[in-house]
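Issue 218. Parser rejects a valid record. Input:
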Amino acid sequence: MGRRPARCYRYCKNKPYIKSRYCRGVPDPKIQIYDVGRKNAGIEDFPLCIHLCSGEYEQLSSEALEAARIVVNKYISKVAGKDSFHMRVRIHPFHVLRINKMLSCAGADRLQTGMRGAFGKPTGVVARVNIGQIIISVRAADKHKAVVIEALRRSKYKFPGRQNIVVSNLWGFTPYTREQFTKYATQGRMADLGAHVKVKSGKGPLNDKSVLIVRKKPVYLPEPAAAAKPAAAKPEAKKEAPKAAAKAN
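Output the parser choked on:
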């Protein structure tokens, strides 16, 4: 018995039903790779970031996510090169689908019980997405903007419903705009984390790793000039009486 069409499980009708110790025997998702391309590229190599966003509140199957990943990877690798981008699938299929299998052979009415005990058994997994939620993100160089947009446009045909392509004003996969990224980089406040960065704040201990580096250097201030001491009064020399006066006395 083949898979049911995706229209049977498109809408989010019930609570999330995930794999657990109570829900066993769940098949593995079709998509196993979520990062494609040059994953170890420096943050300064790929400043452009473009997203594929969902326009509906729906469920996307793991088979559709794998098909979209292959489309984007093949097109960009063929046109721009396999090392010219880094793609990341932002949603993961955790919701478990169920099916109540019905027999269709001769004498099936004697074996099955209709709608009695119709909870069903796991048959696949899907990802639940909201309106405006990011499905796929691609970072690349500015010169490959048209190629990335075309690849994401082709991936839209693998999903039901409506999707939107959004060109982000942020630098790569970081949460900072281009102006903020340039400012922090010139200030030397960026901590490289691979595809992401962390901005050093002024908080924390004051050591060599903090932004506010404190270096205790001796400060040589000019000593205050010594006040000029008044010259000591010389003892007045006794005026010698004129010898003539002494003789007169």
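Fixed in the parser; the record now loads. The chain has a mean pLDDT of 85.
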